[in-house]
Known about the structure:
The chain is an alpha/beta fold. It has helices at residues 34-54, 104-113, 134-137, 157-167, 208-220, 230-234, 256-261, 264-273, 282-288, and strands spanning 6-11, 58-63, 80-82, 87-90, 118-121, 138-141, 146-150, 170-174, 191-193, 197-200, 224-227, 241-244, 250-255, 275-279, 297-298. The chain has a single domain (6-298), classed as L-arginine/glycine Amidinotransferase, Chain A. It is built from nine helices and 15 strands. This is Amidinotransferase.
Amino acid sequence: MQTTSDVLMIRPARFLSNPQTTASNAFQNRERDAAEAQRAALAEFDAYVDALRTCGVNVLVVDDTHEPHTPDSIFPNNWLSLHADGRALIYPMEAENRRQERRQDILDAIGKQFDLRRAVDLSPFERDGHYHEGTGSMVFDHSARVAYVCRSTRSSERVMEAVEREIGYQPFWFGAADRAGKPIFHTNVMMSVGRALAVVCLESVANANERRGLRHSLEQAGKRVVDIGYRQLECFAGNMLELSASDGAPVFALSRQAWAALTAEQQGLLSSEARIALAPIDTIERLGGGGARCMVAEIFLPRRTSPQP
Length: 309
């Protein structure tokens, strides 16, 4: 099952540009007013939830807490992935303040509606300096059982081996860099894989053999490759996610900035394939350095027939 109609989102309590992640995230900018950053991010978050629900996506919203201060809690897909066999994988995070995003009460809230049978905690890898930030570091092709991973300080071969043992996905490693030559910190910034389409910034993959191999792997899996350039990448056009509505209809979730960066032909292709859920998340993208895909943790867990109180 490549897509799901159930997602988790964390409503921010004290959002701001995280000073502990700026070294590896070239997409982040600093804010001048923390209160204004939180106010704007909260409004953008709520509008995004409304857009997803209007398209038929089921959104489980859990509120962040004021303490401990977790400025990036709005990006839960980095510490958690939830799989169809009832398993949750919990990931090692590079920034110390991001490690506090991992909350048992969030897992408990998920478990009330979904059959969460086992949590596999990979966070101890942090003690040895190995970080692997969930579906930020990995872009899953669930149908082909492949995990696409670009090399960065936030991806680890050792952790990827553990993920492979747990869920059996084969890794496809490659290098990707921004136009300044800096490694792209998360794979999901430069590519997205859906049922039939794969949006990818091939320009960011400097090694010609890796670039050809990446395209070949996607096409072998039956994907039509939608190639985006650096300008579109910088507008988070690679950071989109295909979901499904509760009625089975496909849904593409992406920011308004990302949508505006696409060509008319690319917009037409996406619109012909799916409903479009547009997120007005300029503040979150500018200060958090993450986009529409980063804000969503997909829930592939089986639903409980009788939700718990």
